[in-house]
Amino acid sequence: MRILITGGCGFVGANLARHFLTGGHEVILLDNLARRGSEYNVEDLTRLGARFVHGDVRCVEDLAPLPRVDAICETSAQPSAIDGYANPLYDLSNNTFGLLNVLEKARRDDAVLVFWSTNKVYSGDRVNAIPVREAATRWEWDAASKYRARGFSFEKGISDQFDVDGGQHSIYGLSKICADLICQEWADAFGVRTVVNRFSCLAGPGQFGKSAQGWVAWWVIAFHFGLPLVYIGWQGKQVRDALFTPDINRLVELEIKHIDRAAGQVFNIGGGMSCCVSLQEMTAWCEKRFGAKVPVRIEPTPRKADHAVYITDASKAEKLLGWRPQVGLDEGLEQICAWVDREHDRLARLYGK
Ligand SMILES: NC(=O)c1ccc[n+]([C@@H]2O[C@H](COP(=O)([O-])OP(=O)(O)OC[C@H]3O[C@@H](n4cnc5c(N)ncnc54)[C@H](O)[C@@H]3O)[C@@H](O)[C@H]2O)c1
Q: Distance from the CA of 181 to the center of ligand 1, in angstroms?
C-alpha cells in the first residue's frame, strides 16, 4: 500500500510511519515542521525509506503534486487545547480547513482517510456535569449519584454516543468537531471512506511533550531533566485514560484492513478504565521511577473547557474491529523513559538543558 501521513513528522505520525515502513508499505510524509522536535524525525524516517515532503495541508499546491495513494492518515494539527485561545483563526485554518484539502485528495484518489479527532469534541460543560467525588489522589466519577446520560456509563466511560453539543469545547475542540463532522459528511455525500477516531490522551516515545500538550511524556522529560511542573486546576487530581503508540498503530492498521466495517464510522478511542491516571499519580510514579522529586506549583483555576475526569468507552472498536488496548500504564511509561534516555542529547537541546 502507498500511505500518505499528513503531519507525518509529529509524534503520532512518525510512530505510525515506522510501523507501516516495517510492514513493507510505501510511506509519504507531508509536514510543515511547525511542531518543535518534528524536524528530528525527517532524517530518521527518510533513512528508513519514507519520502518526506515539506508542505502544508492548508496549501492545495503542496498536495497536488503528490502521487495517488491508497490511504491517508491525517495526523497534522495544532494539537494544544490551550494555544487556540491566543489565535483562533490559526486552529480553524490549520485543523479544519486544512483537513478539507486532505479530504479532497482522498476523494480524488479514492483513498481511505483516517482522521485524528479528539475527546475535546465533548465540551467541558457536558463532561463535568458527571458528578465526581474526591479520593486521595484523584477525582472519580460518583456512581452513587445515579447520573445518567446517553453514551455514558460508570463502568465503561464515554462512548461516541455522548452529546457533542453545549459550550466550552476550547477553540481546538471546536476546530476538531468541525473537521470530524466534515469527514462524516464527506463519507455520506461523496462516498469517501473516512474513519473518525476521537482519541483521548495519546502517549509514547517520540512525543516532544510540553505543559500545553503531550503531558504524559512531558512529565517523564521533566523528571529526567529536573524541570518544574505545574498542576493547573483540580489540585492535580484530574484523570485521563492514556493510550500508547503500539495500540494506536494497531488500530489504524485494522481500520484500513477492515475498511468495509470502519468506513463512515466514528470511534471513541482510549486506554479505558484500566489505563487511567491523575497528574498527582503520574508525579508519584515518576518520583519512584527516578528516585527524585521536582518542584510542583499548584494553580487553583482549571484550564478553560478542561475535563475533570475523562475515560473512554472504546467498546465499539472492539465490537466492529476486535481492537482493544494492550499496553498497560507501567509498560507504556517505561517505553517513554527508555526513549528519553536514548535521546538525552537531542532532548537536552530542545528543553534547554
Ligand atoms: N497527543 C494527544 O494526546 C492527542 C489526543 C487526541 C487527538 N490528538 C490529535 O492527534 C494528531 C496528532 O497529534 P500529535 O500529538 O502527534 O501532535 P504533533 O504536534 O506531535 O504532530 C502534528 C504534526 O503536524 C504538523 N503540522 C501542523 N500543522 C501542519 C500543517 N498545516 N501542515 C502540515 N503539517 C502540519 C506538525 O509540524 C507536527 O509534526 C493531531 O491531530 C492531534 O490533534 C492528539
A: 18
CA-to-CA distance for 284 and 290, rounded, in angstroms?
A: 10
Q: Indicate the pTM of the whole model.
A: 0.97
Domains (range + CATH), the chain: 2-350 (3.40.50.720)
What does the DSSP 8-state code read for residue 312?
B
Compute the distance from residue 10 Cα to the ligand 1 centre, in Å: 6
Rg over alpha carbons for the chain, rounded to the nearest Å, is 19
> Where residue 270 falls among pLDDT bands split at 50, 70, 90?
very high
Q: How far apart are CA 293 and CA 259, in angstroms?
A: 47
Calpha distance 229→286 (Å, rounded): 12
Residue whose Cα lies nearest atom 18 of ligand 1: it is 10
pLDDT at position 167 over 90: no
80 CB within 6 A, ligand 1: no
169-191 per-position pLDDT tens digit:
999 999 999 999 999 999 999 99
